[in-house]
Amino acid sequence: MTSSQSTTSAALAADPAPLPGGISLAHQVAPLVEALVADATQLRLAISTGPLGCRIVDAGISVPGSLEAGRRIAEICLGGLGKVALVPGGRFSPFDTLVSVTTTDPVTACLASQYAGWSLSHGDFFALGSGPGRAMAAVEPLFAELGCRDHGDHVALVLETGVTPPAEVVQEVASRCGVAPTAVTFILTPTSSLAGTVQIVARVLEVALHKAHALHFPLEHIVDGIGSAPVAPPSPDFLTAMGRTNDAVLYGGDVQLFVRGSSEAAQDLAKRLPSLASRDYGRPFGEIFAGYDCDFYKVDPLLFSPARVTVTAMEQGTSFTAGGFDANLIARSFGV
Question: Which reaction is this enzyme known to catalyze (predicted)?
Fold first, then answer.
């Protein structure tokens, strides 16, 4: 952890502010997590006790997992503030099933919970944590900007990994969140799994929120949002699976944001938000990633956004659309 993260965490701990509306993400997701565990057999999940007594939900390492598990895990990632559905689309035949995401509080659901922003590492282990536990730890500088922190008795974190976190990571999460290790639940979703595919593609709305934030659009002006992207076929090869889930969003994702403010501001956001605005646009993500020596930090950060974006200026009743889908690239990426 960096010194700036420690300072941020300490400041928030000294003067914590509740999440908007006085909600608790930890409280919201508790019944969702318990329902996931209760339905583990039918969802093809494995539940076990991990280091220091934490609870491990295996969604694709030693068990197959399922699309439905991925859908429910995605709702946990959203902090219980959004709905995820698998719906018919017809956008990219034969990949006609879309992951659809809606939330009435996109900033809290996507940025304070779903965004994979908590870096967890020890020795050879590394994973990015997403889900409501992030808002309890509040170690990321983003939470200083959002000005909020969550509190709860239990922690739920989703890790895109195929390895159980070691005791040192479990202890770090518990300590940062102010709970015992036995109160921590890790939901593990490998990229190559069915559940991993769905929960990653379900970030289509989140990447739009994250890029809007990077473009310095006022987050308080974002009122509502909806997004969708095609379900990518999984692959046993990690790089192929990662490429497909990214391509599903970059070249097949569709998002509509409903915002306050002027039509000019909405039009400018729509123009700059799609992945088409990136210098790296136009090739499968796997090729882009390999071309940068598999270094995420060399990829243009503006690439990580939906293919098509519509921004509606609610006070004027005007909408602006930019970007577009690339069916040929989706087919190429998905192995047709």
Answer: 5,10-methenyl-5,6,7,8-tetrahydromethanopterin + H2O = N(5)-formyl-5,6,7,8-tetrahydromethanopterin + H(+)
Of 278, 281, 13, the C-alpha closest to 139 is: 13
Last residue of a domain, one of 192, 220, 245: 192
Burial degree of 292 (CB within 10 A; 0-12, 13-18, 19+): middle
Q: Specify whether 186 is located in the same domain as 247.
A: no
Please state the domain count of the chain.
2
What is this structure's pTM?
Answer: 0.92
Single out the residue of 96, 95, 115 nearest to residue 107, CA to CA: 115
Is the bond into 106 cis (omega within 30 degrees of 0)?
no
Backbone phi and psi for residue 239, each to the nearest 5 degrees, phi listed first? -65, -40
Cα gap 102→14, rounded to integer Å = 34
Query: How many Å apart are CA 197 and CA 98, to the nearest integer?
Result: 12
8 contacts 141 by C-beta, under 8 angstroms: yes
155 falls within a domain: yes
User: How many angstroms separate the most distant Cα atoms in the chain?
Assistant: 55
Residue type (1 letter), 199: Q
Stated length of the chain: 336
pLDDT tens figures, 174-218: 999 999 999 999 999 999 999 999 999 999 999 999 999 999 999
Count other C-beta atoms under 10 Å from residue 16's C-beta. Answer: 14
